[in-house]
Specification:
Elements: H1 9-12, E1 36-46, E2 51-62, E3 67-71, H2 78-85, E4 93-101, E5 109-110, H3 116-123, E6 128-131, H4 135-138, H5 145-155, H6 163-173, H7 190-202, E7 208-212, H8 220-235, E8 239-244, H9 247-253, E9 256-261, E10 264-270, H10 271-276, H11 281-288
Parallel strand pairs: 3-8, 3-9, 6-7, 7-8
Antiparallel strand pairs: 1-2, 1-4, 4-5, 9-10
Helix pairs in contact: 5-6
Length: 351
C-alpha cells in the first residue's frame, strides 16, 4: 500500500517541481522570489546516431541564503546542469526551458535564453561563479595563481593597490598558503588547484556560486574547511548550488538536497527531512549504500542516457515498481510534489 506524507510547511508552498507540475516555480513559503528559478530545463546532446538525454524537465529554486546540494551517481547530469546555467555547453547541445536569475543588483535574466555576450559580460564570474569539476584543466597555464587572482579581482572592481592584499586574503579564506600563489598551475597539486579555482570563483563575490565537486583532492581537514566556507557564505546571505557525490557533506551543510537520477531530479526536500525519511526509493537506496547505514549498494546500474526507458527511469532497479511506473510519475492529488514517484516511501510505512 502507498500512503502519502503530509507536506511540511516548507515543502508545501513550492509545487512546480521534480515531477514538473504547471504551477509557477520558485516562490518560497514566505512568498520571496528565488535568486535562481530553474523551470523545465532540458539538455540534449546530439551524437552521430543517438541523442543523450542529459537533463530532463528540471525544476529547482535557490533562494538567497540557501545552500542547495545536488547529489546523484556519476553521469546523471549534474555538471551538465551547471554548465547549462552558464552557457558553457558545446555546440552539439540543445538547451530548452528557463533559468531565471534575479541578481540583487541588475535586471532579471533568463540564463537559457540570453546572448553569449550578455552571459560573458554580466553573468559568468560576476553574478554566477563556477568552481569547475576539473580545475586543473580550467586554469590558464601561463599565469601564476597570484596573477590570475589579482586579474580577477581587478576585473571586478579592486584597484591595483588593493588587489595584492585582497588576493592573499581570498587565498587564505580557501586554505591556500599565499606562498603557493607564485606557482604556475602545472606546479600545483590537485588539491591546490582545487583551492585556487575556488578562490577565483569567490573573488568577485558572486551572489550565486555553482560549486561542482569543490572538495575533490582535498584531505579531510581541507574538505571541512571548504564546506564550512560555503556554509558561511550562505549564512551571510549568499547562495550556493553544491554538486557533490558526498552525501555526508550535503547532510552537514545543505539546507535542501536535490537527488538526481538519469537526468531528472527525483526528490528535493529539506536536508534533515530527506535524511530522516527518504521518500523516493532511489534516495532510500543511496542512503542505504552509506557505510554508516546498511552499506548495501543500490542493485543494478543506471540506464544509458541515450536509451532511457519510458516512464520512471529507476523502475527497472526498484522493488516497488508496478505497471504504472511505465508512465512518468507526474504529481497527482496527494502525492508530495517534490517527489517524482508513483510509490513513494512514507514515514512509518513498511518499505
Ligand atoms: N558534450 C557532450 N556530448 C555528449 N554527451 C555528453 C557531453 N557532455 C556530457 N555528456 C553526457 O551527459 C551525461 C551527464 O554528464 P555529467 O557530466 O553532467 O554527469 P555528472 O552527473 O556530472 O557525473 P560525475 O558525477 O561523474 O561528474 C553523461 O552521460 C555524459 O556522458
Ligand atoms: Ni560532474
Amino acid at each position: 500500500m502507498t500512503t502519502t506524507r503530509e507536506p511540511t510547511a516548507a515543502g508545501s508552498a513550492d509545487t512546480a517541481d521534480a515531477a514538473g507540475s504547471a504551477a509557477p516555480a520558485g516562490t518560497a513559503a514566505d512568498g520571496r522570489p528565488g535568486l535562481l528559478e530553474v523551470d523545465g530545463l532540458t539538455v540534449r546532446f546530439q551524437l552521430r546516431d543517438a541523442v543523450v538525454q542529459a537533463v530532463t524537465d528540471l525544476h529547482l529554486t535557490v533562494h538567497p541564503g540557501e545552500l542547495l546540494a545536488v547529489v546523484g551517481e556519476s553521469g546523471c547530469g549534474k555538471s551538465v546542469l551547471a554548465h547549462a546555467l552558464l552557457g558553457l555547453l558545446p555546440g552539439n547541445a540543445t538547451v530548452t526551458g528557463h533559468a531565471r536569475l534575479r541578481p540583487p543588483t541588475g535586471a532579471q535574466v533568463d540564463l537559457v535564453n540570453s546572448s553569449e555576450r550578455h552571459l560573458a559580460r554580466a553573468v559568468r564570474g560576476r553574478a554566477v561563479g563556477l568552481v569547475p569539476q576539473s580545475p586543473a584543466t580550467a586554469l590558464t597555464p601561463v599565469r601564476t595563481g597570484r596573477r590570475l587572482l589579482e586579474e580577477t579581482l581587478r576585473a571586478h572592481g579592486c584597484t591595483r593597490r588593493e588587489a595584492p592584499a585582497a588576493a592573499e586574503r581570498v587565498a587564505d579564506d580557501v586554505g591556500l598558503d599565499p606562498a603557493d600563489l607564485d606557482r604556475y598551475p602545472h606546479e600545483l597539486s590537485g588539491g591546490m588547484a582545487q583551492r585556487l579555482a575556488t578562490a577565483l570563483a569567490l573573488a568577485p563575490d558572486p551572489p550565486l556560486l555553482l560549486a561542482d565537486e569543490p572538495t575533490t583532492g582535498l584531505d579531510r581537514p581541507l574538505v571541512d574547511h571548504t564546506l564550512d566556507l560555503l556554509r558561511r557564505r550562505c549564512d551571510a546571505g549568499g547562495a550556493v548550488l553544491l554538486i557533490t557525490h558526498d552525501l555526508a557533506a550535503a547532510r552537514r551543510i545543505a539546507d535542501t538536497v536535490a537527488v538526481m537520477y538519469a537526468s531528472r531530479i527525483v526528490e528535493r526536500r529539506p536536508t534533515a527531512e530527506l535524511f530522516a525519511a527518504p521518500a523516493h526509493p532511489y534516495t532510500a537506496g543511496l542512503l542505504d549504500a552509506l557505510p554508516e547505514r546498511a552499506f548495501r549498494p543500490v542493485p543494478g546500474h543506471p540506464p544509458m542516457l541515450t536509451d532511457l526507458p519510458p516512464g520512471c527511469a529507476f523502475a527497472p532497479r526498484c522493488d516497488r515498481a508496478t505497471d504504472v511506473c511505465r508512465t512518468s510519475p507526474a504529481p497527482s492529488a496527494g502525492t508530495p510534489a517534490r517527489i517524482a514517484c508513483h510509490h513513494p516511501l512514507t514515514l512509518g510505512a513498511p518499505a
